[in-house]
Automatic annotation (TrEMBL):
Keywords: Nucleus, Repressor, Transcription, Transcription regulation. This is Histone deacetylase complex subunit SAP30 Sin3 binding domain-containing protein. It is found in: Nucleus. Residues 27-80 form the Histone deacetylase complex subunit SAP30 Sin3 binding domain. The keyword Chaperone does not apply.
Length: 89
């Protein structure tokens, strides 16, 4: 018997609001600045403190929506395999 997922649940049966908590404060300033540059975060001054960068990165990351989780995972695995092919013996 196939049941419809409950409202607020993902296709895997876990609440959509449950997301892993990431502590961006553990990243160094250079990594935070790289994230800022790559994702073109606006409203963050060039002289931003680490705390300001952590706040901006956290807001940006939290706002991201993944529309097709399986497609994203498959693309990630493919990218990793292309960068680090398994050695053939």
């Amino acid at each position: 018997m196939d049941a419809e997922p409950r409202r607020g649940a993902s296709q895997f049966g876990t609440p959509a609001t449950l997301r892993p908590r990431l502590n961006f404060g553990k990243l160094d300033v250079n990594s935070l600045k790289r994230y800022q540059r790559v994702h073109k975060l606006v409203g963050v001054p060039q002289t931003a403190s680490k705390e300001q960068l952590v706040s901006a990165v956290t807001r940006h990351f939290s706002a991201q929506v993944v529309s097709d989780e399986l497609k994203v995972i498959a693309a990630f695995v493919t990218a990793v395999q292309k960068r680090h092919p398994l050695s053939k013996k």
